[in-house]
Amino acid sequence: MRYTTFGRTGLRVSELVLGAMTFGEQGGVGAPPAECRRILDVYAEAGGNVVDTAINYRGGASEEILGEVLAGRRDRFVVASKYTVTRDATDPNGGGNHRKNLRLSLETSLRRLRTDHLDIYWVHIWDRHTPIEETMRALDDAVTAGKVLYVGVSDTPAWVVSRGNTLAEWRGWTPFAGLQVPYSLVNRDAERELLPMAGAYGLTVTAWSPLGGGVLSGKYTGDGGAPTRLSRDSISERDLSIAAAVQQVAGELGATPAQVALAWVRQHSGVLPMIGARTVEQLRENLGCLDVTLPPEATARLETATGFSLGFPADFIAQTSSWVLGSHDLVSP
């Protein structure tokens, strides 16, 4: 496992992030505590050091189990959690990105995780009712108090993230160091605005659902094993054709479809795939992506299969560059 720094900070993070959404059996198929411990052990043995959870995962069980399995070795890991999702659906202040929910959510997560601080605290989802100024200042207060070391933002429009970090720069607050978005061969939307914005601000991107909700895992294009989460009939023909292209490349490279799909995400600079697993066997397969290098021709085939375009304004700007620059090409700095 290789390491990189988290955004424009000195925090060292591994190139694969372990997602703990599967920790716990509440609310659907997940991993029991004993299997969660084995998953964390195997991940750590491979060199992984970042574990990502949230206050709402498995009704709170994910944080509780993670706190249990981290006992005695918590400081060896970069522990990340998120807030926004409601703690109590009957309480109008039970959710959101405002200061009150941040404080109560943070205290809840620290208690469950059995720690006095979080290494990374993520804003989980954009709350359009809370001014970004309030959120940024409240996060900075949590950092000043020593309960949070670094902050990031997930599932939020690029313009909101940009405004938040600009305010932080102007006012001396702690800026976002990371961005969390869905990113896979079946969902490349982040390439339009979010990934360019992350690059401009030096944000590390952690990609959730890098297997497209399991569509790219191979179980919908292979002959064996019944799907556990999706019906094949519920998957679009477009997504099935992308999965078939992944399956073909995997066969040529002697890898599994999941490893190829993860390798495609990994090859994007500054993007760290989040791998989740309900069993140690699933985790070991996902870790195998570290040994997969996609030839340029294979990458081109995979991306052609997506039929993706940046759309307006990126395509328009590219098409009209000669109107702006004339016959003189510029080399990017």
Automatic annotation (TrEMBL):
Recorded GO MF terms: oxidoreductase activity
Coiled-coil parts of chain: none
Domain NADP-dependent oxidoreductase, residue spans: 15-303
Keyword Oxidoreductase part of the UniProt annotation: yes
UniProt-listed InterPro entries: AKR_Detox_Biosynth, NAD(P)_OxRdtase_dom_sf, NADP_OxRdtase_dom
Keyword terms, alphabetized: Oxidoreductase
GO cellular component: cytosol
UniProt keyword Oxidoreductase present: yes
PANTHER family recorded: NAD(P)-LINKED OXIDOREDUCTASE SUPERFAMILY PROTEIN (PTHR43364:SF4), NADH-SPECIFIC METHYLGLYOXAL REDUCTASE-RELATED (PTHR43364)
The protein's name: Oxidoreductase
